[in-house]
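REVIEWER CHECKLIST
Item 1: Sequence provided? yes
Item 2: Single chain? yes
Item 3: Sequence as submitted:
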Amino acid sequence: MRRILLLALLTALLGLSVPTAHATPDPAAKRAPRALFFGDSYFVGGGCSPDRNADMAALAGRELGYRPVVRGAGGTGFVQANPDYDLPAYLAQIGDGALDVKNPRLVVIQGGSNDIGQPVDQVRTNARKVLQIARTKYPHAVLALVGPMDTYGGYADSIPIRNALRSVARKMNVPFIDAMKWTAGRDDLLCSDYVHPTYAGHVYLGHKLAKALAKRGA
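Item 4: Structure as written out by the authors:
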């Protein structure tokens, strides 16, 4: 008995914590429906925030009560590949199984930021194909499309891409989320590259994404 009391006193003095023998994983988390998020580095991580489990997509999914599965690749888009890291554009990633997830209740496609400078018509065509694949694979899931983010704030280059994606979404009756100006005036949320959000920035953006998805039936 004295040893137990001494151990408890030492633990309190040192600020330590002793795990209980009855600690178990939250069963509610295991029962939560899956949500599939697919996109570029704003979803999968990049810059000073490479952890996809702490980025805006995963945070939004958990805030909405889902088990998020985050897929995609930095530097890629509907047309744009990332040859420096041998990463193909979206359709090739999907061909390799990027959208293969068991029974997601929510599917969120995000992109366009890396497609600036690519032919807008090709962006539009490929986005339509991506959405059609997602809808065919998961006809009962809520499907949403998130447009490009523009952290530089000029917007002129991003607007044609944003408008093309919004047009595709409207024609396919897919909810569209315009994220282009989400970091406007908030350089404090960005890494030193002024492209990628910090982890604090992802908390802010994840909450905005969750709110936008909730308004669209997520």
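Item 5: Key structural point noted by reviewer: The longest strand covers residues 104-110.
Item 6: Recommendation: ____
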